[in-house]
Design brief:
Keywords: Membrane, Transmembrane, Transmembrane helix. This is DUF3137 domain-containing protein. It comes from Microbacterium hydrocarbonoxydans. By secondary structure, this protein is α+β, with helices and mostly antiparallel strands. It has 2 domains: about 110 residues, no CATH class; about 180 residues, no CATH class. The chain is about 50% helix and about 20% strand. It is built from 11 helices and 7 strands. Strands 1, 2, 3, 4, 5, 6 and 7 form a 7-stranded antiparallel sheet that branches. The longest helix has about 80 residues.
Length: about 375
C-alpha cells in the first residue's frame, strides 16, 4: 500500500488508451470464465431458444391467423422473425456494452492497484475468510479485489452471496476490508448505529447478554458484542484512544474481529472508481495501523493453564534438587500465555433458533386461540 495520507487516484479518472483496455480484456478472458458464469450463459441460451422464441412465434402466428387466416400466418411469421432478430441484436449490443464497461472498470482498478503497490484480482469464488458474512448462502464470491501486503496484509473487495427460501432468492451485497492481525483476538463485533445494517441482519442473532457498554460517547456510535467473560479483554483492546479513532474514522463501518483478522463491512461497494471512497477507506485503515501493534501484545490468560504443565516440567528438570528451596522462582507463573484465544472467546454465542421458533409458535397459537377465549368469557358473563 501507499504511505498513509497519500495515494495515486489518477488511474481511476484519467483518460485511458482503448487499445490497452482491449488488451487487458483479452487477458482477463484468457484466464477463463468460472463454472458459474458458463452455466449462467448456457441456461440463458436454453431459455431463449426453447421458451422465448417459440412463444413469440406462436403468439404472432396465432394473431395473424385470427386476422387474415393463411396469408396472415405468413406475414406474422415474417414479422416474428424480424422482431426476434431485432431482440437478439439489441441483446448482443447490450451485452457488448456491459462487457466494455466492465472491462474499463477492471482496467482502471488494476491500474490503480499497480500505481499504489497493490494487486488486483477480478474475482474469488467462496473466499476462505472467517468473517460472519462469508458463511451465509450460496454462490459466494468476492469481486474487484484490491490487495496490499506491506506494511500489513489488507484486502479491499466487494462480496455477494445468495439466499433462498425455496420460492424466492435474494442476493446480498457487501463491501469489505480485511486486515490481517499479528495474533488471534477474541471474537468482537461492532454494529455501527449509523445504518444498523448488522443490527437488523446479522448481529441480531447474537445473545444480547454479550453486549458490552463502553465509556464516553462510544455507545452512541457502536453496539459492541464480546464473548461472556471477555469484558476485561475488550476493555484492554478498546482503550479511550482506540475508541476515539473508531468514532472519528470508522463510525460508518461495521467491524468484526475474529481469529487473527479484522473486517470492516458496509452495504455500499468498497472497490469502486470513486476516489473519495478510497480516500475514506485508506484513512480508516491508516487510523488503525498504529494501534494494531498494541493489540499484538494481548494474551489470553485462560491459556496459561495449558502452558503451566510444560513450564513446570521444564523448570523441574532445570532446577533439579534445588527446586525444593523456598526461594525457587515460580517458573510456571512467570511463563506468559502463548498467542491465541481460549475456546470460549473464539466465537460469540448465537441465539437458539428453537427459542425463536417457540416464541413464534406461542404468539401464533395465542392469536388463534384468542377468539375462542373471548367467546368462552362472553358465555360465562352472559349467564
Amino acid at each position: 500500500m501507499s504511505a498513509p495520507g497519500f495515494f495515486d487516484a489518477r488511474p481511476l479518472v484519467d483518460p485511458v488508451d482503448s487499445a490497452e483496455v482491449a488488451r487487458f480484456a483479452r487477458e482477463q478472458r484468457g484466464a477463463g470464465a468460472s463454472a458459474s458464469q458458463v452455466i449462467a450463459w448456457v441456461i440463458l441460451a436454453i431459455v431463449v431458444v426453447l421458451f422465448i422464441v417459440p412463444i413469440v412465434y406462436v403468439m404472432a402466428m396465432g394473431l395473424g391467423y385470427a386476422i387474415a387466416r393463411g396469408a396472415g400466418v405468413a406475414v406474422a411469421a415474417l414479422l416474428a422473425t424480424v422482431f426476434t432478430g431485432g431482440l437478439v441484436a439489441l441483446g448482443v449490443i447490450a451485452v457488448q456494452r456491459a462487457r466494455a464497461a466492465r472491462a474499463l472498470a477492471s482496467y482502471r482498478l488494476a491500474s490503480f492497484a499497480a500505481a499504489n503497490s497493490m494487486q488486483y484480482f477480478a474475482r474469488f469464488d467462496a473466499p476462505p475468510l472467517p468473517g460472519m458474512i462469508y458463511s451465509h448462502g450460496t454462490s459466494r464470491m468476492s469481486t474487484d479485489v484490491v490487495r496490499g501486503t506491506s506494511p500489513r496484509f489488507v484486502e479491499f473487495g466487494n462480496y455477494q452471496y445468495t439466499t433462498s427460501n425455496g420460492e424466492n432468492s435474494t442476493t446480498h451485497r457487501w463491501g469489505y476490508v480485511a486486515i490481517k492481525l499479528d495474533v488471534p483476538l477474541p471474537h468482537i463485533v461492532l454494529d455501527a448505529l449509523s445504518d444498523n445494517t448488522l443490527g437488523s441482519d446479522v448481529a441480531a442473532g447474537y445473545s444480547r447478554e454479550q453486549r458490552l457498554s463502553l465509556e464516553g460517547d462510544f455507545d452512541r456510535y457502536f453496539s459492541l458484542f464480546c464473548p461472556s467473560g471477555y469484558e476485561v479483554d475488550a476493555l484492554y483492546l478498546f482503550t479511550p484512544d482506540v475508541m476515539a479513532r473508531f468514532i472519528d474514522s470508522l463510525a460508518q463501518l461495521n467491524v468484526e474481529i475474529v481469529d487473527d483478522w479484522m473486517f470492516f463491512y458496509t452495504r455500499r461497494p468498497v472497490s469502486t472508481l470513486d476516489p473519495a471512497t478510497w480516500s475514506w477507506l485508506f484513512g480508516a485503515v491508516a487510523a488503525m495501523m498504529t494501534k494494531l501493534d498494541q493489540w499484538a501484545r494481548w494474551r489470553d490468560d485462560r491459556l496459561r493453564t495449558l502452558a503451566q504443565p510444560a513450564a513446570a516440567a521444564a523448570g523441574a528438570a532445570a532446577a533439579g534438587p534445588a527446586s525444593a528451596l523456598p526461594f525457587a522462582p515460580p517458573t510456571a507463573l512467570l511463563t506468559p500465555p502463548p498467542p491465541g484465544v481460549a475456546p470460549p472467546g473464539r466465537r460469540l454465542r448465537t441465539r437458539s433458533p428453537w427459542l425463536i421458533i417457540a416464541i413464534l409458535v406461542a404468539v401464533v397459537g395465542g392469536m388463534a386461540l384468542l377468539p375462542f377465549a373471548l367467546g368462552i368469557v362472553a358465555v360465562l358473563f352472559s349467564r
